Every structure is written in structure tokens, then in C-alpha cells.
Amino acid sequence: MKPDFSKLARTCAAVAAFSVAAGVQAQQPVSLTIASFGQGSGWYVYAVNLGETLRQALPPGSKVDTPPIAGSVGNPRLVSVGKADLGFGMALVNNWAQKGSVSYDKPLPDLRALVGGWDQYYLVPVASGEAGPDMDKFLHKDRPKARVVTLPRGGVGPVGAAQLLGIMNSGEDALKARGGNNEYASFAAVKSLFAGRNVDLFIHVLNPGHPTVTEIAQNTPVSFLQPPQSALEEMSKKYGWTVATMPKGTFPKQTQDIRLPSTHTTLFASTRMSDDMAYMIVKTICEKTDQLRAAHKALAKFDCANGAWKEEANGLPLHAGAARYYKERGWVK
To answer: What is the CATH number of the domain that holds 174?
Structure first.
């Protein structure tokens, strides 16, 4: 039987064309933007390190920008409208965005999870000066005219603070009626307020080793407050927070374990991202965890094998490209 040279030629031509196209695609530089949070935050450190890690895996000439913008509430909106390709978020807030609840007036259905479970975040009440751990007593007896500060709106910190204070009858209006106040400030301003003893309480979502609060606790007298159990239960029931224990010694001067509202960091994209790009990003992250863990104390236990694909660790359904990688590893069926 004579070989069909015309068929063989067509096959070789097709393979060659595919190889050339794949090679061009593989070498084509790309530009990615990772939305994180302000300088001084743990997420900004994560994003800078992730950007460097991805640049090593992307085609030569690729760019990864890591602007210190938005935060957990703003990032889903940025990714949804295409102003960022990737965003660091929180499983709790991503779920709000998917449903169109709490901080969102409509659902953002195009968001997709890449890698969840980066770390553990706690909603932490940090009091200036010496104080007992009882947050209810602190607000209603010790310092009913408390000067409360949170970061500017855009992240989950001020949202969570307002939720917790509201449940404890110390929301913005209640504080004002008692002679206290609630103001918004940057990390740099918060440090100055603590240094000058011009604040009573700062509430924010913190991961272990958070640079700003670590510096504050090292340089000024502070106390870490324990919300009442009833408030923790209401935060879970009404808003979807989980509850976790922040072990003593997580921050300087934290002398006891504290039960707090909590959530996890996740990295997400949108359906606009190609499956191949999502696959490459997830593969790079999950196979370069040592490089990523070296960036921040809070990532010491980060490991994709611990459930990075689970919806409860992301608050979102998986991107198809991410699911492909997790299936290859045998973690998803």
C-alpha cells in the first residue's frame, strides 16, 4: 500500500501551523493588573511578590502592575468591569458581591475564583492604652465617648467595623450621641493617632504579622479587645462572617487568645480571563508557594493542597482554567 503523501503533507502542514501559532502565543507579552490594597497592608505585599512570581512565568516583556488601590469591597467591582485582571479579595465579601448583598446593590455574576485560603483574617478591635479585654465594657463603661477610627471606605475593614459596632449599640450615631466620634484615616494617619494618644479604638481586618498594627503595638501601649459571644453569633448569622480564634502572641502585647469575626484571602478573576491564562496563574501560584510564603508571615501555612479550590475558601465558583489545574492534581473530580 502506497503512503498517501498528500494526506501526510496536509497533516504536517497543520501540525506546523499549530506549532507556530502556539509558539507565537506562548511568546506574546501580556499585561496584567492585580488589585490589592494600600501601601502598608498585607495584600500590597502579597501583590508585589505575586507580580514578580508571575513575571518569571510569563513571556519575556510581559508586565504585571500591582497598584495599591481599592480593597476587598472595591476589588470585585474593578475586576468585574475590566479595570483589573486579578484581585485579592475575601471569601466573605466575594460572596456578598456574587449575591448582590451588603455592600453591593446588584450581583456581580462574572467573578470567578482562582486560589483561595491564602491566610486567615480577623476583624480586630485594637484599643489605645491599657484596657481590659471586654469590648462591651470598654465601649459602654470605660470609654463611652470613644474616638473610633477605621480605614477609608472601600475595604471590608470599615464595613465590618460598622457591622460590629452597630450590633453592640455603638454605631456612628450612637457614638455621636454619647459624645464620641467615628473617623476615617489612612494607615499612616492611624499610626500618628496612636502615637499622639488621639484615638481610643481602631477596628480593621488583620492577618498575622500585619505591618501597621505590629508597628503600632511595638511602639505604643495597646490592648486587644474581645467582642461578646452574642455579637459574634450575630455577625455570623446576619452577615456571614465565620468565627476563629486569634492565638495570643499574634501581635505584640496580645497576651491572650481572642475569638473574632474572620474570613480568608482569595485571588479571583472574571470570566473575561482565558482558561489558559487562569490555568497558568494557578499553576504558578500552587507550584511556587515557597517563593510566595517568603513574602509575609501570614502566608506561612499557605498551601494550595489545603483546599484552595473550595467555594467556602473563595466565596465564588471556580474559573474553568483553575478547575483544570486542580483536576490535574487530583484535588477536584
So the answer is: 3.40.190.10
Domain boundary among 208, 240, 262: 262
Percent of the chain's residues with pLDDT above 70 = 92
Residues 6+ apart with CB under 8 A from 93: 72, 73, 76, 102, 103, 156, 159, 263, 315
- All residues at 6 or more sequence positions from 195 whose CB lies less than 8 Å from its CB, including other chains: 219, 220
pLDDT of res. 297: 82
Angle of helix 275-287 relative to helix 42-57, nearest 10 degrees, comes to: 110
pLDDT in tens, 252-292: 999 999 999 999 999 999 999 999 999 999 999 999 999 99
Does 13 have pLDDT greater than 50?
A: no
Q: Lowest-pLDDT range, 91-95, 188-192, 296-300, 314-318?
A: 296-300
8 Å CB contact between 82 and 237: no
As given in the structure block, the three cell numbers for residue 213 are 498594627
The whole-number average pLDDT for the span 202-207 is: 94
pLDDT tens string 141-186:
999 999 999 998 867 899 999 999 999 999 999 999 999 999 999 9
Q: Is 229 within the bounds of a domain?
A: yes
Same domain, 40 and 70: yes
Provide the domain count of the chain: 2
Q: Determine the structural domain holding residue 69 and report its residue range.
A: 30-120+264-328
Q: Residue 306 — φ and ψ, nearest 5°? A: -85, 15
Which of residues 54 and 312 earns the better pLDDT score?
Answer: 54
Residue type, 118: W
| Whether residues 148 and 176 fall in one domain | yes
For residue 122, which of 296, 321, 257 has the smallest C-alpha distance? 257
101-104 long-range Cβ contacts below 8 angstroms, 24+ apart: 102/159, 102/239, 103/73, 103/159, 104/76
Rg over alpha carbons for the chain, rounded to the nearest Å, is 23
User: E strands, 39-158, where?
Assistant: 63-65, 86-90, 111-128, 147-150
Of 155, 151, 142, 128, nearest to 70 (Cα)?
155
User: Is 21 a domain residue?
Assistant: no
- Whether residue 24 is contained in a domain is answered as no
